[in-house]
Design brief:
Helix content: 40-55%
Number of strands: 4
Structural class: alpha+beta
Number of helices: 3
Largest sheet: 2 strands, antiparallel
Amino acid sequence: VIKYCWGYIMLNLNMPIELIVSIINTYLRSKYSSLEVLCEIEDLDFEELTNKLSNNNYEYCQNSNQIKQK
């Protein structure tokens, strides 16, 4: 189980993918300029996260700075 703590929100990559996407998109909208920056600052494994997203039919869209369904 991988957990990351951002303020009051715990992100566990075993959570439902919709919840993961919602949490990350909230942070991308309000705090981070890119998924790479978010991962670097919050000490997330970028490759693990993007693999999880891809395996669940999601991808990061750099132009909109959001995770979206493929």
